[in-house]
Design a protein that fits this description.
single chain, alpha/beta, two-stranded antiparallel ribbon, 9 helices
């Protein structure tokens, strides 16, 4: 599969550290090519859990004293800082230079899965500044940036969010931005071939379910090649989706470890024009 000049992190190192489909690193005594069939079978069965789409997860608790107005002010503060970052500029550049020029790409809606709560009550961090909250905000801001660029060319009518851990303030913020919040697993039934699907660091079996509903025209999320290697011989969903598609890595983050954790090891994947020279590399 074609790649950008930006180097991706290796799936494993000489110390035999391997990255599982959900992005966790494990130290093993055998190389990934010798992964046991029992492990592969376990991964394939995991996707058949009854709560696969998060329907049994509970919403997070709203922090004491937090109002809708305070939540909007906090988002505005994050947005102002984000817009002045080099990462925001690099992401805008990549979408303008790589995605917008694709002639046969059609995007009419966006579906975002599994961002986590933006305003979850924490007993260990200050009201807003927990790392998980900042990572969720970073992913939301990255999505807003990508949508702003895409709307320069594409008529994106609806932006859907699905996250069973959203609390009332999370939903109020997204609704105030003109987005639609769905209950799990409604988003799966809205998947189409003109969808922009955003699934940063989501569990592989949920992504697999989405791709089995429809192949989106644009996908941003986990590096699906990792899933192909781990699930080789079990399921053809990921190889089938990646066929005749191009992928590049998200821009690299060096100055902010929270943003790096939120947006690392992600790729942009799309179906290019037939005359795109990158297809000759496949």
């Amino acid at each position: 599969m074609p790649h950008s000049s930006r180097a991706k992190k290796k799936l494993w190192s000489k110390r035999q550290e391997i990255l599982d489909p959900n992005g966790w690193t494990h130290v093993v005594k055998t190389a990934p090519k010798n992964i046991s069939q029992d492990l592969k079978l376990g991964l394939s069965l995991l996707r058949n859990k009854p709560d696969i789409d998060g329907a049994t997860c509970s919403p997070t608790e709203v922090p004491d004293g937090l109002t809708v107005e305070m939540a909007r002010e906090k988002y505005a503060s994050y947005l102002a800082r984000w817009n002045n970052t080099r990462y925001c500029q690099d992401l805008q550049r990549d979408f303008k230079n790589i995605i917008l020029p694709v002639n046969h790409l059609e995007i009419t809606q966006c579906i975002c899965l599994g961002l986590g709560s933006f305003f979850a009550k924490s007993h260990f961090f200050s009201l807003f500044e927990g790392a998980a909250v900042r990572e969720s905000f970073s992913q939301l801001l990255a999505l807003v940036t990508m949508l702003d660029v895409l709307k320069e060319k594409h008529d994106i009518k609806d932006v859907f969010f699905q996250e069973p851990r959203f609390n009332s303030l999370d939903k109020e913020l997204l609704l105030s931005m003109g987005f639609v919040v769905l209950e799990s697993p409604d988003a799966m039934e809205r998947m189409t071939s003109t969808t922009f699907l955003f699934t940063p660091h989501l569990e592989f079996f949920i992504i697999q379910n989405a791709l089995e509903k429809a192949h989106p025209s644009l996908y941003c999320g986990n590096d699906l090649e990792h899933h192909v290697q781990w699930l080789d011989g079990i399921n053809e969903t990921f190889p089938g989706f990646l066929k005749n598609r191009c992928s590049v890595s998200f821009p690299q983050v060096k100055s902010d470890h929270v943003v790096e954790n939120a947006l690392s090891n992600l790729t942009i994947t799309w179906k290019p024009d037939k005359e795109d020279p990158r297809l000759s590399d496949k």
